[in-house]
Amino acid sequence: xxxxxxxxxxxxxxxxxxxxxxxxxxxxxxxxxxxxxxxxxxxxxxxxxxxxxxxxxxxxxxxxxxxxxxxxxxxxxxxxxxxxxxxxxxxxxxxxxxxxxxxxxxxxxxxxxxxxxxxxxxxxxxxxxxxxxxxxxxxxxxxxxxxxxxxxxxxxxxxxxxxxxxxxxxxxxxxxxxxxxxxxxxxxxxxxxxxxxxxxxxxxxxxxxxxxxxxxxxxxxxxxxxxxxxxxxxxxxxxxxxxxxxxxxxxxxxxxxxxxxxxxxxxxxxxxxxxxxxxxxxxxxxxxxxxxxxxxxxxxxxxxxxxxxxxxxxxxxxxxxxxxxxxxxxxxxxxxxxxxxxxxxxxxxxxxxxxxxxxxxxxxxxxxxxxxxxxxxxxxxxxxxxxxxxxxxxxxxxxxxxxx
Length: 404
Fold this sequence. Notes:
Blueprint: H1 7-28, E1 35-41, H2 48-67, E2 79-85, H3 90-103, E3 108-110, H4 114-125, E4 131-133, E5 149-151, H5 156-173, E6 180-186, H6 189-201, E7 208-215, H7 223-232, E8 236-240, H8 243-255, E9 262-266, H9 274-279, H10 281-284, E10 288-291, H11 299-310, H12 318-336, H13 341-349, E11 365-366, E12 369-370, E13 376-381, E14 384-389
Parallel strand pairs: 1-2, 1-3, 3-4, 4-5, 6-7, 6-8, 8-9, 9-10
Antiparallel strand pairs: 10-13, 11-12, 13-14
Helix pairs in contact: 2-12, 3-4, 5-6, 12-13
């Protein structure tokens, strides 16, 4: 027997050996490629706190989707987060969209602030890139006819309508204890638009607007604003401001002993924020808000809150809202059965997703707006934020008016 091996024999044997090594992976099939989704939040700058709340919710949702087997219609493909810091301004948001486009994301979730969401969703539309807004409440976001843009949460129109309806019912139940109103709003897109709507609608229900006061973001001193409120002596103060300005306003009112019958906020940056409640309990006590909040009846919220707090983080509405938004996107990708942008847009548009954590009905988009979404009225009571209206979601009764 010839035991000598020439070069050709060795190469042939090596090829056979390599084929044998590769064969099992061919038989088993290649692991499905990950699906990249963009998470856009402002985690530096003036809105950094809210951006972190949103990022936490998105991270937890991605982890849970992957732990449950990933996208099953795509062979268990896992979600991969491509994070972008919007740096609290629209220009940075657009830059991050361009970067995410280059990295091959199939969709983007987030934005938080209305100006960021407006600019980022417009940039995404150039690439037919699905964009799911988490918070941005300006109705301009979904009134431009952009087929790629969807908003899971309620916007200006829905929130203002609910805020007024809830206030009217709460006030009537208290014997119409409040009549005069001062509006205090941040001077950007969010606050100015909301104040305009409130100033138009509240008088239709018997309220008198005694003044509308615009303040800049950020504000360093609101002493003059509070002095003006003292001279006006309104029954109700309705602030529509971001976190820092609300805290400053509430603390200055407390220090100057300006005590209206009630503070009824709308889409407020602090009145629905547990950090404010924990750090300034006296200034926060009994403040009401009509805003996004989780469904207190859903036990999954308590479970998620424990995970957030175990990680040393603060629970806020942005967390379950972004958690739900990512789960909604994952459901759309599952039903689309492809990491294809056009198919994902179609799947989002036909969504009936109901496995969310918010006090909403099933998801139903009309022209990009989720018509199943609605805010709730909350109130700070005994160091906690409680839902007080509507009764279907409430875990407490309103204290109104707070002062006689």
